[in-house]
Amino acid sequence: MARGRQPAKLTSRHRLPPSPQLTRYLLRLSKPSLEKLVFDWLKTPICAPNLTPTDDNLIEAGYDEEPRDTTLEEAEEAYTNLTSRKEIVDRVFEREWRDGLTMHQVAQVDMQYLLDHPSSLKWTACELVLEEGKKPVGDKLPKFQPVVFCKSLLEIMDPMVQCHPYYITHPTLPLTIIRLSLHNPYPLPTLPPPANQIFYLAVPTSSPHLFFTPQRSKLADICRKSLPIALSSQHRRYDIVSTALSAKTLEALLARKGCERGDLGAGGGWSIYAVEGEGAAEGDPLEVTRPRKRRSVDAEDLRTDNTEGRKRKRVAEERFGNSATVGDGSGLERVEVKLKEVWPRGKGVPGVLGVVDGNAGKGKRGRPKKDVTTNGNDEEDDGPVVDEEAPWKGKSWMPNVDVVLEGTHVFAGVRRLVEEGVFDGEKIPTWMTGEEGKSVGLVKGGTILKSSVAAGIHEPAASGRRGRRKTT
Prior knowledge:
The chain folds into 3 domains: 15-116, no CATH class; 123-257, S-adenosylmethionine decarboxylase; 311-338 and 400-470, Ubiquitin-like (UB roll) (Roll), CATH 3.10.20.720. Helices cover 27% and strands 16% of the residues. The chain has 12 helices and 15 strands. Helix 2 packs parallel to helix 5 and helix 11 packs antiparallel against helix 12 (410-419). The longest helix is centred in the first third of the chain and has 14 residues, at 103-116.
């Protein structure tokens, strides 16, 4: 019996022919970025240009003389003299790369666009745990090597997925970014991959966390499930769990889940202890007295004569510390929580079950009504505290309340509202100050429950649009 035809492997030298999609791919970049990439391509062997004469050169030369090849110096000078992105892209596909761009070049275009626009993607943080459920620390952290990891990942996904990996070290952040272009096994691609088939993975240095883009496609699901297998070794197995934290910039995730950060990442008022040098706190964090912060006197403080305003600003400084300031580069754009708070059913409790005015709880003649819920012999005491199937039967009730905060920097907006007196800075819960280090979860008792983070990589479900309030 004859064997079926094996599909060809997708390599970095595989070329995508010129097409309108490929042209739009390059036009996303700015002129300086395009020039930088073209000059790199001219000197890189894997992106070697075609310097032989074109058909137009042969027609112009006729029979008088034989046209010569273009030199690299002449090509560089020609690109330097071009004035617009359109002219650069036209020359790319008409002259030096008229045969098309390689997968390596397409990956470089995507990566350059990501560096130019850091907030163009949505990132989700996940945590590595050992197979027995313990957190890896020290020498138990995986020794990440991009070449070995990519080779392992390709072997795991083969033959279900054709994948082209490309990785760089971030120029300013301590992490490695890996771009995985996912394709069907057969045939080989002739167009750039769509957005849902490009999977980005960021690996911070010396951290048990990973950052990835939550793409929704079958190929991306296979890639996500293959990540812990590719990171595991023969004697140490890892699993991946969600941290319920998402952001649009790697800076925001790195500030909370970066180098050897824990679950909280020194957020909120604890952020003053994570700073060294100017702005750092003096003393031990376990001291009873409030730590003194080394900072210069702000001119705005000297002009402020309002005692209440100074008090609110001091409370905001204690609750938020050095974090949640506009322009700090670590802002979260969305925080979504579901409140699981139990409320008593007593009629004398303000704002609970039908208490609509100041006369609630009084009889017709102004006398207070008898509170039957406080009677120890009442039959209702034997009932459940909260009956989820019939909420009106229990002694207490748990309303379904979803809170969604959205803005360019959610916690900076909350801090501003505290300083303006809209929120009481002494009573707001820790998940509103960024101390919890999460952007989604279940809240009970003012804190986000750890059990609300389910095992495995998952994307928080989108809620309705009711009850949203933009904070910035």
